[in-house]
From TrEMBL:
Domain HTH lysR-type: 1-59
Protein name: DNA-binding transcriptional LysR family regulator
A Gene Ontology molecular function term of the record: DNA binding
InterPro entries attached to this UniProt entry: LysR_HTH_N (IPR000847), WH-like_DNA-bd_sf (IPR036388), WH_DNA-bd_sf (IPR036390)
Gene Ontology, cellular component aspect: protein-DNA complex
PROSITE patterns cross-referenced by the UniProt entry: HTH_LYSR (PS50931)
C-alpha cells in the first residue's frame, strides 16, 4: 500500500469535509481517494470516516490519528522539496580554460533543459585532473590520448596570422638553412597541449627534422601565444574551430597527426551519466568535429 498517498488523501478529505473536494485538492479522482482511504482503514484496522452522513465526518479513531497523518504528509512534502533542491544544486565541472564564454553559456542552457545546473571551473589539463581527484569538482573534462579512452577527439593543425601558401604545412619547411638571417620560425604550443601525447610527439618530430630546440615552444598562455603569432610568422598549434575564433588561418600538418583527446572523469559515476545527453554540446565547446565525439 502507498502509505503516504493514502495519508495524503485522508488528510485532504478530512480538512475539506468532502470526498469530492478533498480528492480535487489532492489532485486525484474521487474514486481513487475513496479506495486509498478504504485501504488505509483496512491497514489500520478501524474506520476513519463515519459513512452514515453525507459529509466526510471523522470518527473518534480518525480524529486521534489525523495529527500523525498530517505530520507524515508534511515530512513527505519536505523530503520531495529537499530532493528537488538537491538535484538543482550546481554540478561543478572542470573545463579547459580556453573554452569560450558563449559556448559554455549554450552548454549551461542546454543542461538546464535536462534539470541540471552546471558550475564551470576553467583550468589547465593537470589542474583539471587534480580537481576531480581531490573532489573539488564532481566531473572534469580530462586530457587523454586520442587513441585510448577519449570520448571526444579534436584534430589539431597550425594557424598563422597570414594565410600559408600551401594547403598543408610541413614543419620541415621551418628548418633554418646555414647563413640565413632573421629569427627562426617557431611552433607555439598553448598550455592545453602541454601533455605528453601531444608535446612529446611534436618534440620528437622537431628533433627528427633537425629543427632547433627553440623552434617548438610552450607558451605561458593562449593569449601570449596568439600575440606572438599576430606579430610574426610563427605558427600556433590549435584546432580549426579555435583558429576561426581567433581569426587566424588554419592548415593541417603534413608530417604528423596531432589530436586532442578528452574524457569525463567523475567523482560519482552517476554524475558522468547525467552529462550523457550533453555530449554534442560538450563537443561544440571543445571544437570537436561532428562524428568525433
Amino acid at each position: 500500500m502507498d502509505l503516504v498517498g493514502a495519508c495524503r488523501a485522508f488528510v485532504s478529505v478530512s480538512e475539506r469535509g468532502s470526498f469530492t473536494l478533498g480528492a480535487a485538492a489532492a489532485g486525484i479522482p474521487q474514486p481513487v481517494a475513496s479506495r486509498r482511504i478504504a485501504a488505509l482503514e483496512q491497514h489500520l484496522g478501524d474506520r476513519l470516516f463515519d459513512r452514515s452522513t453525507r459529509r466526510a465526518v471523522l470518527t473518534p479513531f480518525g480524529r486521534d490519528v489525523l495529527p500523525a497523518a498530517q505530520r507524515l504528509v508534511g515530512l513527505a512534502d519536505a523530503f520531495e522539496h529537499d530532493a528537488r533542491r538537491a538535484r538543482r544544486r550546481p554540478l561543478r565541472l572542470a573545463v579547459p580554460d580556453w573554452c569560450g564564454a558563449r559556448d559554455l553559456a549554450h552548454l549551461d542552457a542546454e543542461a538546464r533543459d535536462h534539470d541540471l545546473v552546471l558550475d564551470f571551473r576553467p583550468a589547465r589539463p593537470a589542474r583539471r585532473a587534480d580537481l576531480v581527484r581531490t573532489q573539488e569538482v564532481r566531473v572534469a573534462l580530462t586530457a587523454v590520448p586520442a587513441d585510448e579512452e577519449a570520448r571526444w577527439r579534436v584534430p589539431l593543425g597550425v594557424a598563422a596570422a597570414v594565410p600559408p601558401s600551401a594547403h598543408t604545412v610541413y614543419l620541415e619547411t621551418l628548418r633554418v638553412s646555414r647563413g640565413a638571417d632573421g629569427p627562426a620560425r617557431r611552433v607555439l604550443l598553448q598550455p592545453e597541449d602541454d601533455v605528453p601525447h601531444i608535446r612529446d610527439r611534436l618534440v620528437h618530430l622537431r628533433d627528427s627534422l633537425g629543427l632547433r630546440p627553440s623552434q617548438v615552444v610552450i607558451a605561458e598562455s593562449l593569449v601570449t601565444a596568439v600575440a606572438d603569432v599576430l606579430g610574426s610568422a610563427d605558427l600556433l598549434v590549435c584546432s580549426a574551430a579555435q583558429a576561426a575564433e581567433l581569426e587566424l588561418h588554419w592548415r593541417p600538418l603534413g608530417e604528423i597527426g596531432l589530436v586532442r583527446g578528452y574524457a569525463l572523469a567523475a567523482t560519482y559515476s552517476d554524475d558522468g551519466e547525467r552529462l550523457g545527453p550533453l555530449s554534442r554540446a560538450i563537443a561544440h565547446c571543445l571544437g570537436a568535429r561532428e562524428g568525433d565525439e
